[in-house]
Specification:
The complex is a heterodimer. By secondary structure, chain A is mostly helical. Chain A is built from 20 helices and two strands. Chain A folds into two domains: 187 residues, no CATH class; 214 residues, no CATH class. A two-stranded antiparallel ribbon of chain A has the order 1-2. By secondary structure, chain B is mainly alpha-helical. Chain B has one domain. Chain B contains 20 helices and two strands. The termini of chain B are far apart. Classes of the chains: A mainly alpha, B mainly alpha. Chains A and B meet through helix 17, helix 18 and helix 20 of A and helix 5, helix 6 and helix 7 of B.
Chain lengths: 468, 500
């Protein structure tokens, strides 16, 4: 429970800071918060006890600790990357709000991951979503940002409604909300199957699976970049964590049924996400659609339905955090300095800002799954887990997936082409970014290089995950 | 330490060293030193390998070392080399070395150019030493992706289109390949039930025939895309024509060989029954490649396109010979890979030099170049003669062996396709001689061409380093075939169990 307690304490500290700090102290709010959060992230790695609290509502073991640590690291990188944006004059009065909202959302996710019944799971899910909606509308003087906030809150309200309806059916048929009891009486009766489908649709909204993805692009485009990256990496990561955990434990008796559903969803998600990404010119929208396609790949791991599948999902999300945040970091630095977000603005970027371009290229290659960067390993293991069924049906799925990965290469290369090949009379001028962004981007690059080759990390994740 | 590790470590160190250079001079000197050491290591490897064989070491694969990487998936970093791999490593080292000299005057972003070029080479070397399918696939993709930048940034003509087409087609090929690799992996459970990516381990298994039949097309087509198998060859002419000189050399000379090598070492070696059963489909496709490539070259006017189509024809011949599945033709296939690798690299180097002087690659815009640039022109003629199979040069040895081997099949189908494929020799002679006659001989048409200067020292070095082995193979083919034979032995044994 340490993660949640520390974060809650941090929220309170930030609130008190907001109330009592003077003008001079406020100037150091960003630094203060980043230091405290770094300490919390590090403390998360100290050995923890396994245990159960609140009569089974909350449980903690090595796996949940690891997942929380993954989310913490990702959030830390985002905090680093949004420091420069927060220091802009128009945001200066709201710095602490930003931190408090991010922490609240994160604490919600951590409760969700540790939940042992549907009630805590639902509370955590809501706590994770609502602050993000507020954050999406953070630049409320911009029309698009306000629109993003409204869209996010409405769609998540709808999806929560669907999810709750499904959960109520499961409760009605099994007579319990505790996972440990639901497992025993979850036998796949008609009402339970409908509940399962509602559950998948509800989570589909959170993970932006096709056909529940329509909110994604608009929200990602309208929200400030820091929030977009939070949504596309941390929120999506947390949602896929709990999704796979519940499917693998509570609903394991219906594995054949949800495998069929996810099989279709995964093909749709990969293909449609890719096809829409092909035509985007705004980098935030582009990354939004690419992240939809990536969610389709995550489903491949879930479809594996074995220990390998769960390992590869966790491992992929870990890599995806570093990879996607690398790309978002570059976009955010450039947008903060020049305000440019279109792909053609990046023409000739390599000649003026070589390091940023290289980081972007590495991140995009990692997203596309090109060796020797980490994304290759992540994707390879996801494909392996889907292929582990060893039937023609799943080999076809893998074939569709790898062909999709090839299609995705086309649009990732478009950005690489803009930066390295296209000529531009007025390229983005040479500039040097602030120290926070540099640390944030450096962490991503290190992760992109190390995680793939370091099989220790993979083997550790393997040792704590489980199959059906 | 295992000598094979050097072939990955040296390029990586060279890349790191290039990062610390400042300009073209620094970058090219570091590259030459690095790749020079690599070439010496390759020559040493070949000599050492031969000595070990002469000393009576009969293991099929030498220099094996095995490091476990992902224990739970049983993924290893497993390396080793047989006679074929050793010859391919030497070929790669020669072509890369010559390629560095061919790009001596690369003024635009030189450091980035040499880094990408050597990264590509790293992938190729890694591919040839890998005995584990995972690392093999990893190196394969490492070899493909730098092509995009190399063609896109430093290419000419419709470079963006060609670069994208080439990258997507090759990655599409590797996508198909990956499905085949998973098929092998999940059917590789030995007596102990452990799945494995190791090639030697899978080769010992008896994979059921229906499974072999399902996955063989994935593997063969997956590698075949890179080997310019008809109808997946269309990336090749565009890609080669747009690429800068050194990249064309490396790509046609070495990278396309990854396709042939993969088809033989993985698809056919690991799935022999399916290969035997389905060979006829691919024999037809490769025969089309051979003839179509040759006729395609006749119609082209751009020197690079001519050579690109001739590569399609010659690489098709490699796959054709492999599919004939007997000792003689397979031996010929490997010699053809090496011979074509050297020849086509030489051609592209020459074309690059001619283009650098005349600023055109159209044969009808040039004439009588023999008088002004005799060195380049003479080497071009020699390369042309090697390509059309003149005895005494490498091309003859390769084609002769292939067609003799192919004709050993007594049945009508094999005889007919062999006869059709042999016509490519005649057609090759047509386009080679036509080109030589048109732009090297005769009177000088364009007055600007009067002032052209002949090859500089680095260009001569580049050409000679390719020309020597071509003549060497032509005069002394026996040494090469002995080494190749022992690499082929396990594969031939796989097939001889099937064939009557």
């Amino acid at each position: 429970m340490r993660h949640e307690l520390l974060l809650s304490a941090l929220i309170i500290i930030a609130l008190l800071f907001e109330i009592f700090a003077g003008k001079i102290a406020r100037k150091s709010a960003v630094l203060f918060n980043i230091i405290l959060f770094t300490i919390i992230t590090v403390m998360g790695f100290f050995p923890a006890y396994d245990g159960v609290l609140f009569g089974g509502s909350f449980h903690n073991d090595q796996m949940t600790v690891l997942l929380k640590n993954i989310l913490n690291i990702g959030t830390l990188i985002i905090l680093f990357q949004s420091a420069a944006w927060l220091k802009k004059p128009e945001n200066e009065s709201k710095i602490l709000e930003y931190f408090i909202l991010i922490y609240s959302s994160l604490v919600g996710m951590q409760f969700m991951i540790s939940s042992g019944d549907f009630l805590l799971f639902y509370i955590g899910l809501e706590l994770a979503t609502i602050p993000v909606a507020a954050l999406a509308a953070f630049e409320k003087f911009k029309k698009k940002s306000a629109e993003a906030g409204i869209k996010l809150i409405l769609t998540s309200a709808l999806s929560s409604g669907i999810l709750l309806y499904g959960l109520s059916m499961i409760y009605g048929t099994t007579g319990s909300i505790y996972f440990s009891q639901v497992i025993n009486s979850f036998n796949g009766s008609a009402l339970q199957i409908i509940g399962l489908m509602f559950f998948i649709s509800g989570m589909g909204f959170k993970m932006s699976l096709v056909p529940f993805h329509l909110w994604t692009a608009d929200v990602y485009e309208g929200a400030p970049i820091g929030i977009t990256s939070f949504l596309s990496v941390i929120s999506k990561g947390a949602a896929s964590f709990i999704f796979i955990i519940i499917l693998f434990t509570v609903m394991k008796s219906t594995v054949t049924i949800w495998n069929e559903i996810l099989y279709v969803l995964s093909i749709l998600t990969m293909t449609i996400g890719n096809l829409f990404a092909l035509r985007q010119n705004n980098l935030k929208r582009f990354l939004a659609f690419s992240s939809i396609a990536q969610a389709g790949f995550i489903l491949l791991g879930i479809l594996g339905s074995n220990q390998l599948g769960m390992t590869s999902v966790f491992y992929f999300v870990l890599i995806y955090i570093f990879t996607n945040l690398g790309a978002f970091g570059v976009v955010s630095v450039i947008a903060n300095t020049t305000g440019k977000e279109e792909i053609q603005d990046y023409n000739g970027l390599y000649r003026t800002n070589p390091l940023l371009s290289l980081t972007m290229m590495l991140s995009l290659f990692s997203l596309a799954g090109i060796p020797p960067v980490a994304g290759f390993f992540g994707k390879f293991f996801l494909f392996t887990s889907a292929a582990s069924h060893d039937t023609a049906k799943y080999y076809i799925l893998v074939l569709i997936a790898v062909l999709n990965a090839t299609i995705s290469l086309y649009y990732y290369l478009r950005v690489v082409k803009a930066m390295f090949i296209d000529k531009n009379d007025h390229p983005i001028e040479k500039f040097s970014s602030d120290i926070y962004s540099r640390i944030g981007i450096l962490m991503c690059v290190a992760g992109i290089f190390i995680i793939g080759f370091a099989s220790v990390i993979y083997e550790f994740i393997r040792s704590i995950s489980f199959g059906i | 330490m295992n000598i094979l590790n050097l072939f990955v470590i040296i390029p990586v160190l060279t890349i790191i060293a290039i990062l610390f250079t400042k300009n073209l001079k620094g970058a090219r000197i570091v590259s030459v030193i690095g790749m020079g050491i690599q070439l010496i290591a390759a020559i040493y490897l070949v000599i050492d390998f031969t000595q070990l064989r002469n000393a009576g070491v009969t293991d099929e694969i030498l220099y094996v070392s095995d490091y476990i990487w992902f224990p739970s998936l049983n993924i290893h970093y497993l390396i080793g080399a047989d006679g074929v791999a050793v010859s391919m490593i030497l070929l790669t080292a020669i072509v890369v070395f010559a390629g560095i000299f061919a790009s001596w005057e690369m003024h635009d972003l030189p450091r980035e150019f040499f880094i990408s070029l050597i990264l590509l080479a790293t992938g190729v070397f890694g591919f040839f030493i890998s005995l584990d399918l995972f690392t093999l696939f990893l190196f394969y993709e490492v070899a493909v992706i730098p092509m995009y930048l190399l063609i896109g940034i430093w290419g000419s003509g419709p470079k963006e289109y060609s670069a994208m087409k080439l990258t997507l087609m090759l990655m599409g090929g590797s996508a198909i390949l990956l499905v085949g690799l998973f098929g092998l992996y999940f059917n590789s459970a030995g007596p102990d039930g452990q799945l494995t990516f190791s090639i030697p381990a899978i080769a010992e298994l008896d994979i059921p025939k229906n499974i072999q039949m399902f996955f063989f097309p994935f593997l063969f087509v997956g590698f075949g895309v890179l080997g310019a198998l008809f109808p997946f060859h269309t990336w090749s002419p565009d890609g080669h024509a747009s690429a800068p000189t050194a990249v064309s050399m490396l790509h046609a000379g070495v990278l396309m060989k990854l396709g042939g090598y993969g088809c033989f070492k993985i698809a056919m070696y690991l799935l022999p029954e399916a290969a035997d059963e389905m060979a006829w489909i691919f024999i037809i496709l490769t025969t089309i490649s051979v003839v179509y490539g040759a006729f395609g070259a006749v119609w082209q006017k751009d020197l690079k396109y001519i050579n690109a189509y001739s590569s399609v024809s010659h690489c098709g011949l490699v796959l054709f010979a492999l599919l004939m599945m007997n000792k003689t033709s397979m031996n010929g296939a490997i010699i053809q890979m090496i011979s074509h690798g050297l020849m086509t690299a030489l051609f592209f180097a020459l074309i690059g030099m001619i283009y650098g002087r005349t600023h055109t690659r159209m044969i009808n815009e040039m004439s009588g170049l023999m008088k002004v640039i005799p060195f380049i022109a003479v080497v071009y003629v020699i390369a042309g003669l090697a390509s059309l199979g003149l005895p005494g040069l490498s091309g003859f040895v390769a084609e002769m062996t292939i067609f003799v081997g192919a004709f050993q099949h007594p049945d009508l189908f094999h005889r007919v396709v062999t006869i059709i494929a042999t016509t490519s020799i005649v057609v090759t002679a047509v386009y080679i001689l036509r080109v030589v006659g048109q732009f090297l001989l005769g009177q000088i048409k364009d007055p600007h061409h009067e002032q052209l200067t002949d090859a500089k020292w680095w260009e001569k070095l580049s050409l000679v380093s390719l020309l020597l082995p071509i003549a060497g193979i032509g005069i002394l083919p026996l040494w090469l075939s002995t080494n190749i034979f022992d690499g082929l032995k396990p594969v031939i044994e796989q097939f001889s169990m099937l064939l009557p």
